[in-house]
Design a protein that fits this description.
single chain, mainly alpha, 10 helices, globular
């Protein structure tokens, strides 16, 4: 049963992620919490494992079309791998209701960035090589922490930041982000697993479901109007965000010691 549930969640998250160009943990986490009734910490850790395979599949696809540059990906990953571990440890230290609220606010932020995505290129900046290097290291550090904490790949942060601050094209930024998220997500997943926050029984189905789901969603994305896709994404994610933000603090909650 766990494998079949993982397969269903992988298919749904992969399909929706491919449909709107995002996904990963943003879709997997609400599905795991809602369908499997597992706690928020477990969902974040398990999601990161799935994101590793999403990154591998996506990076291969983008590399075949020449939309990946190795050096920027290595710069992003070098700092992201460090901060992803810190983010995962911080997530573990939070009580579930706080983690739920944090994830809800993160979803609102992602929705705003996603809706503004078509206009980001108008504000892109040009920089010298060494300034771009510093920018990429900073982006990696910030995105890595959020990746480990929120159970996502970090692409929702990396891609717009690279377009705006490093002057990269949208397609190239997406390919670089997918490659960089592989080691960062792996480190975050490993840290979550050490803290018992990975649901190993659903992983086989989850990984198998992500690949065809992403392909189907991406195929349909070329048929539906882009405006419709953005509206669908905004409605679903904002609804999920509100549910998480309204998470109540238990009356007997005990704050973890720091």
């Amino acid at each position: 049963m766990n494998i079949f549930m993982g397969l269903a969640i992988g298919l749904l998250s992969g399909f929706f992620g491919g449909l709107v160009g995002l996904g990963g943990g943003i879709i997997m986490i609400p599905l795991m919490v809602g369908l499997l009734k597992i706690n928020q910490h477990m969902a974040h850790g398990t999601s990161l494992v799935g994101v590793v395979f999403t990154g591998i599949s996506g990076a291969i696809t983008y590399s075949l079309s020449g939309s990946i540059e190795l050096v920027p990906a290595l710069l992003l990953a070098s700092t992201a791998m460090i901060t992803a571990r810190l983010g995962a440890r911080y997530a573990t230290s939070l009580p579930e209701w706080k983690l739920k609220r944090s994830f809800g606010y993160f979803l609102i932020f992602v929705t705003i960035v996603f809706l503004l995505k078509p206009y980001l290129g108008e504000f892109s900046l040009s920089s010298t090589v060494w300034i771009k290097t510093i920018i990429l290291l900073g982006i990696g550090a910030f995105a890595g922490f959020l990746s480990g904490m929120m159970g996502v790949g970090g692409g929702s942060i990396m891609v717009p930041a690279m377009v705006i601050f490093a002057g990269m094209g949208q397609q190239m930024a997406q390919g670089i982000s997918l490659l960089a998220m592989i080691p960062a997500s792996a480190i975050g997943a490993f840290t979550h697993n050490r803290n018992g926050n990975v649901h190993t029984k659903i992983l086989p189905g989850l990984v198998v479901g992500i690949l065809p789901g992403t392909f189907l969603g991406g195929s349909l994305a070329h048929i539906l109007p882009e405006v419709a896709l953005r509206i669908i994404f905004a409605i679903v994610v904002v609804y999920t965000a509100i549910k998480n933000i309204r998470a109540k603090k238990p009356e007997t909650a005990v704050e973890p010691s720091t």
